[in-house]
Amino acid sequence: MYRDPEAASPGAPTRDVLLVSAIITVSLSVTILLCGLCHWCQRKLGKRYKNSLETVGTPDSGRGRSEKKAIKLPAGGKAVNTTPVPSQTPHDDSDRRTEPRSSVSDLVNSLTSEMLMLSPGSEEDEAHEGCSRENLGRIQFSVGYNFQESTLTVKIMKAQELPAKDFSGTSDPFVKIYLLPDKKHKLETKVKRKNLNPHWNETFLFEGFPYEKVVQRVLYLQVLDYDRFSRNDPIGEVSIPLNKVDLTQMQTFWKDLKPCSDGSGSRGELLLSLCYNPSANSIIVNIIKARNLKAMDIGGTSDPYVKVWLMYKDKRVEKKKTVTLKRNLNPIFNESFAFDVPTEKLRETTIIITVMDKDRLSRNDVIGKIYLSWKSGPGEVKHWKDMIARPRQPVAQWHQLKA
């Protein structure tokens, strides 16, 4: 019996079916391969495009240079008073931020958030909470030695983020330059008025110093706040041994300012609380106690009392003071004082706490001070913000007394 060879058995696929299946399989394989190559190309092109954007967006790091005439010193490093060429005063509006409000209620509602944004170092307060070191800013300077002329060159360039030392929430900084251990002869920069980011660009020459003596010295820079009617307030200091510097060429440094050393030791601490009542427009200052006060009398003790000044902008508004406690370096006062402070004036208000030593036969001595406002040092700003954030609640905090 004849049987057609192409006739399929009941359960076997025909030739056409097999051919179609093969074509479909090859098409799917090619499609998958092309999709994989497409994704790979997109990733590569994406990375290349991203890198090109990052390269284009990199800011230029070049800096302009401005020079002044050098203040020269004769052989031996003795200071000579000369008049340097005046430099341009840089524009600094960082400490003059004002945001007028249309009403008192708007100010009350937004005061806390504004302080968090505007107060200097507010982000660092939370990041370094519990850290005792205060942010005192930093200074840029350069130093080098000319072997042919036996001259050490020191250039004071600028400082940044200096703390406010004046009632107005700013400072009048200048720099003293020493070559320790010689403290008798010093040089000074000009005073930059009301500037927390000053530019000096002043050059000083120490002539007639053999290299062997230079490397035995320590370059010491002290930044101070100039006060016309009282003692200049120290801001911070930097010291660098010259034997650790490559003096063959001018080296530029950025150094964080450290608290100025006080050979007589700490001035002590004061515990006080602040309580703000927005409905009554008042601040209550409670002077609680002090500890480890500096001895100001010959007998190794002090007769402390505390003065509290309410300042509005640069004007003294009201003064209160505690009783005097005789011969006591750890006095307990527990005295409260209320001050009327309208809400719209709160941002321009400063409370100055001064611990004094009472003297019967001479002028009373200042043991230490504390400036409380939203634009003081980090510790003071933190206390001020906590007072605003917790209205009608006394907020207590220890403060280190400062010169």
From TrEMBL:
Region (Disordered): 53-106
Feature: compositional bias, Basic and acidic residues: 90-100
Polar residues compositional bias, start-end: 80-89
Residue spans crossing the bilayer: 20-41
InterPro entries: C2_dom (IPR000008), C2_domain_sf (IPR035892), C2A_Synaptotagmin-7 (IPR037732), C2B_Synaptotagmin-7 (IPR037741), Synaptotagmin (IPR001565)
Keywords: Membrane, Repeat, Transmembrane, Transmembrane helix
Pfam families from the UniProt entry: C2
Ranges of residues in domain C2: 135-255, 266-399
Signal peptide limits: none
Keyword Membrane: yes
PANTHER family linked to this entry: SYNAPTOTAGMIN, SYNAPTOTAGMIN-7
Family: Belongs to the synaptotagmin family.
Protein name as catalogued: C2 domain-containing protein
